[in-house]
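The following record pairs a protein chain with its ligand, 2-acetamido-2-deoxy-beta-D-glucopyranose.
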Amino acid sequence: MSTLSHWTAVLLLTCLLLAAPVKTAEAGGFAAIDRHRHRSRSLAAVKNTTWWKPKRYNKDGTFPRFQYQLSDEGTIKYVSGVQVYVIDLDTALSAIPKLKSKNAAVRIVCYFSAGSWEDYRVQADRQFRGVRPSDWGAALGKDMDGWPGERWVDVRSSKVRTILRRRIAWAKKIGCHGVDPDNVNGHDADTGFPLTKANLVAFNKWLASTAHGFGLGIGLKNGLDMIRQLHTLFDWAVNESCNVYEECDLYDTFAATKPIWGIEYCDANEVFGVHTMDPACFCPRMMKKGFNFLYKAVNLTAQGIDCARYCAANKQKCAQGAAVTGSCKSRTNNLCSVVRGRFP
Ligand SMILES: *[C@@H]1O[C@H](CO)[C@@H](O)[C@H](O)[C@H]1NC(C)=O
Ligand SMILES: *[C@@H]1O[C@H](CO)[C@@H](O)[C@H](O)[C@H]1NC(C)=O
Ligand SMILES: *[C@@H]1O[C@H](CO)[C@@H](O)[C@H](O)[C@H]1NC(C)=O
């Protein structure tokens, strides 16, 4: 250990010991993070160079089992054998100790919206991350289509980055291993700002280096047209519905080295008006491509199944499904009975 890194370690330890213990989201919050940052000013330039980088496969060649649960009133269900949980940053404070107490090896990815402001976050967010419209001022843009109470923000604004930096610091502080920032493709939407693809590429690069600086992994969600510029900087990608849109191949560059986690929806037709896929139809394809996919309802409760377990239990269906193409598209009914009471 060099003298420099020795002192870094000592400083880091001191800073950790001095940092105020967090009791609740309300008690911790902005103030705690600001205190922490103030005391560690001399460390400001010291960025972490290591962070969690999930692997595509386990040593035995199976997929790491992952769960993607953003709802169910904040009750995160522990599922034996699940290795990675993607959960909402708001539920993480109470969920992380519970999940870790059951299995210290679990890895937790914390979801938050990076490109929008959500008015329903008021309670949970109050102290630590820009919940009042006035926190964002002129950086608050148009309503997000289809998501009441949600507005785009101007990702070029330093105000936005200050808020997000605190959010990421908070994620680190409460024990997330990685972050899953959503709505990072404002250039594709009517945000109220003249956002270009270059603006969004820059924003995503900033998000990745900020997360990494805190020692957190980061996933790319949406923003497929930026994959070429971003795939080296992100640690995994999350996709929804690429089978429905027949565009999963766009991830091939990314998937050469990093995990692709995806979800197809059993109520896609009902909610989005696109066709609903039968897991027997897309799972064989995803298994073959090495993409780790779940089948879930759009409300993203704990219930769902992963393709690996589905195909292990339905060998014949999956074998047939591998050959099916056209009929995959015709479903308009709700297939959620497949996932009822089941977990990945
Ligand atoms: C770097 O990571 C360590 C351990 O993961 C953490 O305690 C520390 O706060 C991080 N440093 C910064 C600058 O985020
Ligand atoms: C998933 O891929 C589809 C293309 O098939 C794309 O339209 C969609 O935005 C992607 N979703 C996410 C969350 O990355
Ligand atoms: C989520 O959606 C599924 C499928 O439509 C439904 O069966 C379930 O009751 C919903 N759960 C909640 C908590 O909304």
